[in-house]
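The instructor's notes for this session suggest beginning with a concrete chain rather than abstract definitions. Hand out the sequence below and ask the class to guess, before any prediction is shown, which regions might be ordered.
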Amino acid sequence: MISPARQPSSRGSTAGIGYAIAKGMAQAGTTVVVNGRTAAAVERTIAKLNSEIAHANIRGVAADVGTADGCATLVVAEPLADILVNNVGIYGPQDFLEIPDSEWTHLFEVNVMSGVRLSRAYLPGMLQRNWGRTGENHEYDETLIISQVVPSALSDENPITSFMCVSRTLEFEMLEMYF
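After discussion, reveal the predicted structure:
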């Protein structure tokens, strides 16, 4: 159970699993801060949550946390988070050999650095209050062929895990070539 005094911030929370997480936290009685890239999406999410949950305490911030500026915007607007849910991520099936460096950089910025930046921003306050939680949530489609999984490997905010996933995926792809 989450104490009502706790304030979660769920990024990537205007749809899908992120929305479900924000809804669950609001149902638990916490103050929830939802985040999305556009004001329209954030306002729509707040209205939907308020219509589904009586007495919900929900705020929102429109900011593209896939960028350093967007992360800064969120932190300035909501400088306190007791629970940070890192849910933002992008992915689309692509052949490893056809992905340009610019796309790798973009995937890394959105899927890894957004979580790093926000965790760095909120962790000091959590440590000072002697309480806090961060969590990552990412989906993987098990039906994808192995060469298409590489970009999704960067959806883990731990860079070491990301690089291990890329390496392991390439190993499997090379095995497929030889066997």
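Then share the key points. Residues 101-129 form the longest helix (29 residues). The chain has one domain: 8-178.
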